[in-house]
Specification:
252 residues; 9 helices; mainly alpha
Length: 252
């Protein structure tokens, strides 16, 4: 066990830092190559971008392991690229960086979100949302920093929100797969990296020295791992067969 713990302590941080690249590069290239993001949930970039921003602002107060901070920074860049490629190749809509704020007609039929959130037609609103979120967190950080008590509460809230949001990562894709009865468009390489990453994270989280990894990381990591296993079951049941039924929402 001691040898295993040393091996995980040595290699898990490297894997965690590189995991955004190993997990999503193939998905980005596949969307770019096929010129369609059908079957890929746009909520995945939403979840990972929001969680990464929250975790970056969480670090000054929590001072968690630097490997996890580096992972969040790299994930932010990778997910921004993934979002851009997915938006450029959204089914039934190519290009268009304007600021139209109406959801696509098919997305309206599939379900209504307040103000068509994250189903906007123009790309500009996606980037504006991320920028405003970052500016809001920066403002709160500066305002609360002089008060240690308020800063501690704010830090704990950021950690809880960021890690809880990240833990829901598989859920939108599971929903999209269930609606279409197919995993077509969702790369097996992404799923494999998620599952392998879960194993590495669990080892790193629970075998690291006490206090190195906050319990919030451990609890949310366990939930996400369970969801990833569920996604694996879906892939085994549905495969990459032709989407079935009259499902219309597959790209968000």
């Amino acid at each position: 066990m001691a040898i295993l713990a040393r091996l995980i302590s040595a290699f898990a941080p490297i894997f965690l830092v590189l995991s955004p690249l190993t997990s999503y590069t193939d998905q980005i290239l596949a969307i770019h190559r096929t010129r369609t993001s059908a079957g890929f949930s746009l909520d995945i970039p939403l979840i990972m971008l929001t969680a990464s921003i929250l975790k970056i602002f969480y670090w000054p107060g929590a001072r968690y392991d630097l490997a996890l901070l580096a992972q969040a920074v790299i994930m932010l860049g990778v997910q921004a690229v993934l979002l851009k490629v997915a938006l450029d190749n959204r089914p039934g809509w190519r290009g268009g960086s304007g600021g139209g704020d109406l959801p696509l007609r098919e997305e309206q039929k599939a379900g209504v979100r307040p103000w068509g959130f994250w189903r906007w037609r123009g790309q500009r609103l996606y980037w504006q949302f991320l920028l405003l979120l970052s500016l809001l967190l920066l403002t709160l950080h500066l305002l609360l920093a002089p008060s240690p008590t308020a800063a501690r509460g704010y830090t704990a809230l950021l950690g809880a929100l960021g890690l809880t949001i990240e833990a829901t990562l598989p859920l939108p894709q599971m929903r999209a797969n269930y609606r279409s009865r197919s995993c077509k468009g969702f790369r097996l390489s992404v799923l494999a990296n998620w599952l392998f990453g879960d194993a590495m994270k669990m080892g790193f989280f629970f075998l690291s020295d006490a206090g190195k990894v906050p319990w919030a990381f451990k609890a949310c990591g366990c939930f996400q791992a369970a969801c990833d296993v569920g996604l694996g079951v879906q892939y085994w049941v549905y495969g990459e067969g032709k989407e079935g039924g009259d499902v219309r929402l597959r790209g968000v």
